[in-house]
């Protein structure tokens, strides 16, 4: 995996992934981009959500939508690494089985999500929850 981060102006940077996709990051000076720590939080949510949806689809669950609500807790100090991340998956669909969602979330947390496993191994407490919305 490769990437490049280029300074643009002030505290604004453009990150380009090896895939060719890019994102604007900004340190909070002008609020013209995502802050780097927000990127980490969103990356964890994206990684885990990918796992959960993939596992539920393989289990033939009728998932219509899924999103992950995230809250990261950081100390009011420098540096300010995440101490705790709470993740709540909201799965909407028809006839979704609670046991299947619980299993998908557990597999993501314990086996598949490289981002959350990496952070957990670094001492970040990660809490996983889910709720199902029947449509």
TrEMBL record:
Pfam families: OsmC. Gene3D superfamilies: 2.20.25.10, 3.30.300.20. SUPFAM superfamilies: OsmC-like (SSF82784). It comes from the Bacteria. InterPro entries: KH_dom-like_a/b, OsmC/Ohr_fam, OsmC/Ohrsf. This is OsmC-like protein. The lineage of its organism: Bacteria, Pseudomonadati, Pseudomonadota, Gammaproteobacteria, Cellvibrionales.
